[in-house]
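Example 3.2
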Amino acid sequence: MIFSYLDGEPIVPLEIKGKNGQWLKFHAYVDSGAGYSVFHSDTAKSLRLSYIKGDKIPMTVGNGKQIATYRHRLKVRFANEEFYAQINFAPDLGVGVNLLGQRSFFDRFTFCFKSWKGQLDITPKV
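Structure, written as tokens:
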């Protein structure tokens, strides 16, 4: 599945199933250097999820600072697939976009960055 870059960046759409059973659409920056997906705490609020009820996991971010994240297992729709994914929520993420990391995504899909075309080719692993 080919995704065009959004605003010149590898930002892709996905849906997450909220506590009320509704699917909500979000965008996330595909970050091959991130071990885990980290979304803003506001995303959890949109899902009607109390993010602080998740397992508290400290994470070190790009500037070396440690932030608190809260791990949840949620149903997602991504690249024409539906599955459970580990998503961490952080009140102090420090960037303006959700981050799609390796756990639950890079182990399910092959990501081919075609930056010269402004595209990301995502294929489910067989």
